[in-house]
Amino acid sequence: MGLLLVRKLVRASITVLLLVTAVFLILRASGDPAVMMLGVEVSPVALENFRDRWGLNDPVWVQYVIYLKSLAQGDFGRSYIGDRSAWDVVAERLPATLILMVSATVLAVVAGVLAGVLAALNRNSWIDRLVMIIAAAGFSAPNFVLGIFLIVLFGAIWQILPTTGSDTFWHGVLPVLTLASADAAVFARFTRSAVLETLNQPLMRTALAKGVPYRAAVLRHALPNSAIGLVTVFGLFVGRLVSGAVVTENVFAWPGVGSLLVLSVENRDFAVVQTIVILIGITMVCANLLVDLSYLWLDPRTRRTRSRT
Fold first, then answer.
1. CB contact at 8 A, 176 and 107
2. Domain 94-255: what homologous superfamily?
3. What are phi and psi of 42, to 5 degrees?
């Protein structure tokens, strides 16, 4: 178990390093931040002074080595805008994104799992068909399309909910619904399949033969055994949630990390973009690591198989 964890941590570290390297090189090839920050009409002297100030005249490999040394010391660099710490700039936006993502996670998991269980227990009924139709619609609609639709419906036509900002609880309703919709649909479909598969297993027939009530058998046996499949969905869900947050925050002008990422890319604010990408990469790596550890906890057969390899 300990050796397995060490191997996964080493792989996770290599993954984050490769991600940082790729983003570092892509950003340097995407354009000159001096021109983006100062404009094309500024004097060549001002452009050269800006590049000297931020070390942009050094060879790319020198910039890369310096950046890695700074990261090793916990220094994420400084933003070109305001000459502030890149981590401080990102940290200011982080609470708004966490509120949005945690709320969307709770809504997607609860609504999706309940809908999937309801559909499975009423297989081939109108309830099952209705849940699957709604799930297909929710999964198919892109975040920006659904977001604009909700803005028009609740903000322009009915005028009952705010559509931009994050000042009150009600400002978060539409962004959370938008972000959670597609993932709730995924949870509903996978939960339905997992529960149906478990209902047909011998353990359910054995429990019912022993006189266990159907509802109790579902709660004690079907749902816990269906959790293994849902763990995989949750690992994929984190990636969709992060990418969806970037789109959703920009649609609703939500002052989070996603909207900051778009703004920083437009301005070629290298340090801020790299900090956000590192944060996203670590989040994804940790999510997948937790999924693997959850497998070991939920299914002892997985633990025995991996111990032999």
1. yes
2. MetI-like (1.10.3720.10)
3. -75, 160
